[in-house]
């Protein structure tokens, strides 16, 4: 009987047509270089365009469907624009954009050719961060390689597409792709619901919800207080509400009492009802990431920031760096900033005796929920000392 089975097996194998064996190569490391983290967890990296010697600042943004350059950077480098009928969409508007075609981007140890940059105005982001934003790196570059983002060591490693052994004690997300990576998250507060959210490393927040999704799902406890605030994004400024969410999950990982924003999605950025909003980098920076677009996977592993405290502060104070000075441009009515006596066009001289004129340092100092922050301002010919009572959004 054993011989018969063996002969049948041999006969079957010989009768089969030969098939071509496809071997996927192993992903190979190309380069690594440092990254810089702005408030909210936004990732900044440095690169050069074509043969220009200037080093430019780019935001690494999985929430961007392309790659772009700031309009003032384009003008400074005297690049030729091409008019197009293409539009881009953001939280505060829809814009028709020019393009800069067939350009190269030089990262440390890697030159990427044949990139088409759309041109956008990032002046408001530059003013809000206090750091020049020359462009945004999104899908156009991310889809070509594997990116390891290490928030512990503040570095990025880039690999060729191919097989990769993911580290232990992590989780592989299998996002849906509609140019942008979409993942599911369970959000729980007044109700428990599963929603689809953009995986967005370019968003300096925890979660941003479409207001209609919040209403339809009834997920947020209606009795919980919401605070009016303002955010910056594509198209300009946008008024939003901020509050807390009792619980959210990403993969098997759960976060409790998460500060969130809700907004009226007038330009359908979140494509509701297909998506409920955005998961931003103040959540995502708590993991070391492997962004594997060629294989449609994102690997997440908790890092040393996993248990970092959330920022529950609320001031209602809009600071922007304009012509080298940090200026009060927006004050939400009845907010702590309004009650503390701030006026539009006040120039910030110091925050908690810090006179560095550093926007990032000042914003970190204002993340002091439930406490007083001493601020000196120049108003006209006078120097005033103001005390800002930073509100805690859970109190």
Low-confidence blocks of residues: 1-16
Structural class: mainly beta
Q: Given the C-alpha coordinates, what overall shape results?
A: globular
- Adjacency order of strands in the biggest sheet: 1-12-11-22-23-13
Estimate the strand proportion.
over 45%
End-to-end distance: 80 Å
Please compute the radius of gyration using only Cα atoms. 24 Å
Q: What is the mean predicted local confidence, pLDDT?
A: 91
Task: Kindly state the percentage of residues in helix.
Answer: 10-25%
Largest sheet: 6 strands, antiparallel
Q: DSSP helix count?
A: 8
| Quantity of strands, as a count | 30
Describe the model.
The protein is mainly beta. 14% of the residues lie in helices and 45% in strands. It has helices spanning 2-15, 71-76, 123-129, 139-142, 211-217, 281-284, 336-339, 359-366; strands at residues 29-34, 36-37, 43-49, 56-60, 67-70, 87-90, 93-96, 99-107, 110-120, 135-137, 146-150, 155-159, 171-173, 176-178, 180-188, 192-199, 207-210, 227-233, 236-250, 253-263, 277-279, 287-292, 297-302, 313-314, 317-322, 325-331, 347-351, 372-379, 382-389, 391-392. It has a six-stranded antiparallel β-sheet, with no helix packed on it. The protein has a six-stranded mixed β-barrel with strand order 3-4-10-5-9-8. A six-stranded mixed barrel has the order 15-16-21-17-20-19. A hairpin with a 6-residue loop joins β3 (43-49) and β4. Mean pLDDT is 91; it is low at 1-16.
The gist of it:
This protein has 395 residues and is mainly beta.
Attribute tags:
395 residues; mainly beta; 8 helices; 30 strands; disordered N terminus
């Amino acid at each position: 009987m054993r011989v018969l089975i063996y002969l049948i097996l041999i006969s079957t194998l010989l009768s089969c047509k030969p098939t071509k064996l496809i071997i996927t190569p192993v992903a190979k490391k190309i380069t690594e270089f440092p990254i810089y983290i702005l408030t909210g967890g936004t990732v900044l990296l440095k690169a050069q365009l074509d043969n220009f010697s200037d080093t430019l600042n780019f935001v690494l943004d999985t929430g961007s469907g392309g790659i772009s350059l700031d309009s003032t950077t384009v003008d400074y480098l005297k690049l030729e624009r091409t008019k197009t009928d293409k539009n881009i969409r953001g939280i505060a508007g829809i814009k028709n954009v020019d393009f800069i075609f067939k350009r190269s981007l030089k990262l440390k140890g890697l030159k990427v050719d044949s990139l088409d940059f759309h041109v956008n105005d990032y002046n408001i982001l530059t003013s809000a961060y206090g750091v020049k934003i020359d462009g945004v790196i999104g899908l156009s570059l991310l889809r070509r390689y594997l990116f390891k983002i290490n928030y512990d060591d503040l570095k990025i490693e880039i690999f060729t597409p191919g097989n990769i052994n993911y580290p232990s004690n992590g989780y592989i997300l299998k996002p849906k792709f509609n140019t942008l990576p979409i993942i599911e998250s369970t959000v729980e507060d007044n109700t428990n619901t599963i929603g689809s959210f953009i995986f967005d490393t370019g968003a300096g927040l925890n979660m941003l919800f479409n207001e209609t999704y919040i209403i339809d799902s009834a997920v947020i406890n209606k009795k919980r207080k919401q605070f009016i605030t303002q955010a910056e994004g594509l198209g300009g400024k946008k008024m939003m509400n901020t509050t807390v969410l009792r619980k959210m999950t990403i993969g098997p990982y759960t976060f409790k009492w998460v500060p969130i924003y809700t907004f009226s999605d007038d330009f359908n950025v979140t494509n509701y009802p297909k998506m409920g909003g955005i998961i931003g980098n103040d959540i995502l920076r708590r993991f070391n990431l492997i962004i594997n677009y060629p294989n449609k996977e994102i690997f997440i592993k908790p890092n040393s920031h996993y248990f970092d405290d959330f920022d529950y502060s609320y001031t209602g104070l809009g600071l922007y760096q304009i012509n080298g000075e940090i200026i009060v441009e927006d004050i939400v009515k009845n907010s702590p900033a309004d009650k503390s006596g701030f006026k539009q066009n006040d120039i910030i001289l110091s925050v908690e005796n810090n006179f560095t004129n550093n926007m990032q340092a000042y914003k970190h100092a204002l993340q002091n929920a439930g406490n007083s922050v001493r601020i000196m301002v120049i108003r006209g010919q006078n120097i005033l000392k103001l005390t800002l009572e930073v509100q805690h959004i859970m109190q």
